[in-house]
Amino acid sequence: MGCIDVSKYEYLGHGKNGKVYLMPDGKAIKICKREDRCLEEYKVLKMASGSDYFPKVYERKGKIMIREYVEGDDLNTYIKKYGLSKRLVLNLVGMIEEFKRLGFKRLDMRGVHIYVIKDEKIKVIDPSMQLIKTVKYPELMIRDLKNLGVINKFYNILKEERSDLYKKWKN
């Protein structure tokens, strides 16, 4: 990766860690503010390689990372538009279980970093702190669901489908 002129790319958005653009080849390029955060996110995406819950990552150099583009709405926007279904709840549970299977310390993700794609499958677009910060249940995701007014529906589905997690996450 040489010098990159992002003026030719479609701006997709930004967060605390950097700005993301859509490249002409359909991949996403992220220009991070800090190299250490870029490296950490790259490591997480490499660890998650092959997982349905994460985009493919192609390369990283310094503060620049190229990964698969994820089309869809973030969880919060999606729920505001379409509501919360049983399928979506089970996919969110699957995502948290995937975090555990991959050996992540942080079993949580904010709704703005969870993208709902075709068939209510989900992809995590900005996995940061998964290897550093220890969080044993999805407290930020649950807070987002509470703020969206769908927490009771979430818990009812969880109680019915996964009573083991309901007991852990309800408290």
From TrEMBL:
This is Serine/threonine protein kinase. GO terms for molecular function: protein serine/threonine kinase activity. SUPFAM superfamilies: Protein kinase-like (PK-like). Keywords: Kinase, Serine/threonine-protein kinase, Transferase. InterPro entries: Kinase-like_dom_sf (IPR011009). It comes from Clostridium muellerianum.
